[in-house]
């Protein structure tokens, strides 16, 4: 694979790889370092990339594995990034509503962060990155039925945790 082919195939997915790394590591600088390392590994393996069915699946798998290795070696250092899922810039939104949205997004980040790694990965790939089930199958090596079950359980767990936290009237 030459430089031009590498740019056309690998570089367009670096945004997805970065978001995946940031999901796992929860730190922008660590995610950037991980992305750089994955891109370097792919570049050094560029002659063998043609033998892979999906270079994107390989890159996602490499990113996931590298993130898990970093988490293990850093004794699960969790520094919360300063990024919000919601950046409300509309003039008609009250400060009260902005605070409410920020609190909800922080709660969702915490709930998703507490999911087991397979659920977190599949939920991110499907709902954030919008991968198809076949693409997730290539990345994870799981069957489509297993992916559907894991995704369903992850969504249910997020929903239940969110509703339990916000269900003031029931007294939970």
Automatic annotation (TrEMBL):
Keyword entries, A-Z: DNA-binding, Sigma factor, Transcription, Transcription regulation
Domain RNA polymerase sigma-70 region: 13-75
One annotated GO molecular function: DNA binding
Pfam families reported in the protein's UniProt record: Sigma70_r2 (PF04542), Sigma70_r4_2 (PF08281)
Any Gene Ontology biological process: DNA-templated transcription initiation
InterPro entries per UniProt: RNA_pol_sigma-70-like, RNA_pol_sigma-70_dom, RNA_pol_sigma70_r2, RNA_pol_sigma70_r4_t2, RNA_pol_sigma_r2, RNA_pol_sigma_r3/r4-like, WH-like_DNA-bd_sf
Occurrences of domain RNA polymerase sigma factor 70 region 4 type (ranges): 107-157
Protein family membership: Belongs to the sigma-70 factor family. ECF subfamily.
Protein name: Sigma-70 family RNA polymerase sigma factor
Species of origin: Larkinella punicea
């Amino acid at each position: 694979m030459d430089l031009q082919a590498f740019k056309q195939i690998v570089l367009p997915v670096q945004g997805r790889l970065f978001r995946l790394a940031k999901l796992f590591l929860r730190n922008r600088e660590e995610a950037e370092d991980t992305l750089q390392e994955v891109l370097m590994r792919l570049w050094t393996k560029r002659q063998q990339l043609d033998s892979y069915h999906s270079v994107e699946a390989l890159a996602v798998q490499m990113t996931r594995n590298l993130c898990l290795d970093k988490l293990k070696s850093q004794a699960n250092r969790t520094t919360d990034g300063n990024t919000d899922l919601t950046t409300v810039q509309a003039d008609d939104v009250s400060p009260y509503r902005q605070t409410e949205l920020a609190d909800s997004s922080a709660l969702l980040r915490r709930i998703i962060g507490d999911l087991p790694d397979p659920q977190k990965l599949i939920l991110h790939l499907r709902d954030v990155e919008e991968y198809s089930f076949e693409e997730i199958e290539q990345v994870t090596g799981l069957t489509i039925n297993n992916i559907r079950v894991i995704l369903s359980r992850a969504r249910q767990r997020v929903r239940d945790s969110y509703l339990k936290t916000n269900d003031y009237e029931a007294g939970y």
